[in-house]
Automatic annotation (TrEMBL):
<keyword id="KW-0540">Nuclease</keyword>
<protein>
    <submittedName>
        <fullName>Endonuclease</fullName>
    </submittedName>
</protein>
<keyword id="KW-0255">Endonuclease</keyword>
<dbReference type="GO" id="GO:0004519">
    <property type="term" value="F:endonuclease activity"/>
</dbReference>
<dbReference type="InterPro" id="IPR000305">
    <property type="entry name" value="GIY-YIG_endonuc"/>
</dbReference>
<dbReference type="Pfam" id="PF01541">
    <property type="entry name" value="GIY-YIG"/>
</dbReference>
<dbReference type="InterPro" id="IPR050190">
    <property type="entry name" value="UPF0213_domain"/>
</dbReference>
<dbReference type="InterPro" id="IPR035901">
    <property type="entry name" value="GIY-YIG_endonuc_sf"/>
</dbReference>
<keyword id="KW-0378">Hydrolase</keyword>
<comment type="similarity">
    <text>Belongs to the UPF0213 family.</text>
</comment>
<feature type="domain" description="GIY-YIG">
    <location>
        <begin position="3"/>
        <end position="82"/>
    </location>
</feature>
Length: 99
């Protein structure tokens, strides 16, 4: 069975906070971030209202996706900003790509 995995970067409305994650269902995961931000605020993304998608990559192998997630998390903010800008120059919210 073929599965697709995503690493993603989401932000808050003012684009001041970045959250990096990995999932096999990006629609469901962003919906979970949104729900948490509106309700319990138990997670990092929920506390900072991060549910606006800025960046994503797809993988066929979960191990490669996890490695990439760890790599991105280890970067300084400037490098993360450049990766986002190269992919999405205007930092548009990409949620509609999946919803």
């Amino acid at each position: 069975m073929f599965k697709q995995y995503f690493i993603y970067i989401i932000t808050n409305e003012k684009k001041t906070v970045l959250y990096i994650g990995v999932t096999n269902n990006i629609q469901k995961r962003i919906s979970q971030h949104y729900f948490d931000s509106q309700n319990a605020k138990k997670s990092f993304a929920g506390k900072y209202n991060c549910y606006y998608l800025l960046y994503y990559e797809t993988f066929d192998d979960i191990n490669l996706a996890i490695l990439r997630e760890k790599q991105l998390k280890g970067l300084r903010r400037e490098k993360k900003n450049k990766i986002i800008s190269d992919f999405n120059p205007n930092w548009d919210f990409l949620n509609n790509d999946f919803f």
